[in-house]
Amino acid sequence: MSEKDLKTSQDLTVVVQTLLQQMQDKFQTMSDQIIGRIDEMSTRIDDLEKNISDLMTQAGVDELEEEIKVSETSGTA
């Protein structure tokens, strides 16, 4: 292998390593963004579930469901 070929090979190795590092950095950034969005979505879903539960309680849905269960077990439904 000539000195010129060796230099070209080393240059190519550096370029490939740099490209791979850039790809890894980009992948890590995207992974972090996705995980952050999933966490945010989870929090929003939890808040939504709590709000729905609060609205059902305010509307008396829980009490209505309990009355239906009681009347079904006593056979008056």
Proportion in β-strands: under 5%
Share in helix: over 70%
Regions with pLDDT < 50 over 5+ consecutive residues?
Answer: none
How far the N terminus sits from the C terminus, by CA atoms, comes to 93 Å
Give the overall average pLDDT: 88
Backbone shape: rod-shaped
Total helical elements: 2
Order of helices and strands: HH
Radius of gyration: 31 Å
Global structural class: mainly alpha
Q: Which descriptors apply to this entry?
A:
HS1-bd, 77 residues, coiled coil, rod-shaped, transcription corepressor activity, Heat shock factor-binding protein 1, 2 helices, mainly alpha
What does it look like?
The structure is a single chain. With 77 residues, this protein is mainly α. The chain starts with a helix and ends with a helix. The mean pLDDT is 88. It is built from two helices and no strands. It is found in: Nucleus. Keywords: Coiled coil, Nucleus.
